[in-house]
């Protein structure tokens, strides 16, 4: 008997999520993780570290509730958005019995979190224009307890149609939880479904401070949902999920003056994204620059793998999407500073 054979069979077969940091690289320009390109400056306020933190730091809960426009009882603070994904699966899916459903190409952690928990995965690919195939989803809902959708979608960058999301919520009422991942919603805030929480008790929304708030290193996320759903998730979350320093900085980040800075940073990213999209579209090596509502662009190249590797070797680290469903020769590029964006365009332009 070995350590491996002692582990659960589904874990033995599991391929871990290949995060940007795990993939490595020796870069000088990091545009592979959809992070904000520069770090904000916060000072810790000297709170006691010898005591366990609040299970749910109330100043953070209230701050995010104010920001999102929901009551505080509709907010759960988590260790990044990824913990919210895991909590929903653990709370609502019976291992070796229930399934989740998601729509590739999309964020890989939905599958990894389900497989780790011994929960089956059903997939209904997005349509050619990266929208939900509602007719097929309706046919696949048997045995599904949780449906995950991402809008803006990662890695394609597009918004899912609001009418389709509302129809999905109607299809699943009384049958399954619908999780709408809004990790990138600060770049298109008008598209949020937060105001629909009052209409759909089975809706959960994933949020994070990792993107426009420029705090990926903080590992602070949120689930927005109705009180009954939040209470269920509270039963399975760790007793002290948010470290004191993380809660301290998150509280500061949610103050009105910093939110104004976040909104200004988002506008800066949108301007840089527009420049980058136009510059990439002018290159003969680039076949398509897909429309994006997030802080990244998906591009299709004549030889995407070669371009990705060539820039990797120059220390320009992008995200290869060639193996994702229907994304052959595609690369995802996080929108960086103007200088970083110029370097990317220049590096691609000189490739023959």
Describe the structure.
The strands form 3 sheets. This protein has a 7-stranded mixed sheet, sandwiched between helices. A 4-stranded antiparallel sheet has the order 9-10-13-12, with helices on one face. Strands 1-11 form a two-stranded parallel ribbon. It contains 13 helices and 13 strands. The protein is globular and about 55 Å long. Helices cover 36% and strands 16% of the residues. With 352 residues, the protein is an alpha/beta fold.
Runs with pLDDT <50, length 5+? Answer: none
DSSP strand count: 13
Oligomeric nature of the chains? single chain
Largest sheet: 7 strands, mixed
Question: Gist?
Answer:
This protein is of the alpha/beta class and 352 residues long. It is built from 13 helices and 13 strands.
């Amino acid at each position: 008997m070995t350590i491996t054979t002692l582990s659960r069979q589904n874990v033995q077969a599991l391929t871990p999520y290949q995060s940007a940091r795990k993939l490595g690289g020796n870069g000088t320009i990091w545009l592979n993780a959809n992070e904000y390109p520069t770090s904000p400056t916060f000072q810790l306020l000297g709170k006691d570290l010898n005591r366990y933190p609040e299970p749910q730091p109330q100043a953070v809960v209230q701050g995010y509730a104010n920001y999102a426009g929901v009551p505080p009882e509709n907010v759960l603070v988590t260790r990044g958005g990824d913990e919210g994904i895991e909590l929903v699966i653990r709370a609502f899916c019976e291992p070796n019995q229930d399934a989740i459903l998601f729509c590739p190409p999309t964020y890989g952690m939905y599958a990894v979190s389900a497989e780790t928990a011994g929960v089956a995965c059903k997939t209904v690919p997005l349509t050619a224009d990266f929208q939900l195939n509602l007719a097929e989803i309706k046919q696949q809902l048997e045995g599904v307890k949780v449906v995950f959708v991402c809008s803006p979608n990662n890695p394609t960058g597009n918004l899912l149609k609001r009418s389709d999301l509302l129809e999905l919520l109607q299809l699943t009422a009384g049958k399954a939880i619908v999780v709408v991942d809004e990790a990138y919603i600060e770049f298109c805030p008008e598209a949020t479904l937060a105001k629909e929480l009052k209409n759909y008790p089975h809706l959960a929304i994933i949020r994070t401070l990792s993107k426009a708030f420029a705090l990926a290193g903080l590992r602070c996320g949120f689930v927005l949902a109705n009180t009954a759903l939040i209470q269920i998730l509270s039963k399975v979350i760790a007793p002290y999920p948010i470290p004191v320093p993380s809660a301290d900085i998150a509280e500061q980040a949610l103050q009105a003056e910093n939110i104004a800075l976040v909104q200004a940073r988002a506008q800066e990213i949108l301007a840089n994204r527009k420049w980058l999209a136009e510059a990439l579209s002018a290159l003969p090596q680039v076949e398509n620059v897909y429309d994006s509502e997030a802080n990244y662009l998906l591009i299709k190249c004549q030889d995407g793998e070669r371009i990705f590797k060539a820039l990797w070797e120059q220390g320009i680290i992008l995200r290869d999407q060639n193996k994702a469903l229907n994304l052959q020769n595609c690369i995802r590029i996080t929108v960086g500073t103007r200088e970083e964006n110029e370097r990317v365009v220049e590096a691609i332009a000189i490739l023959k």
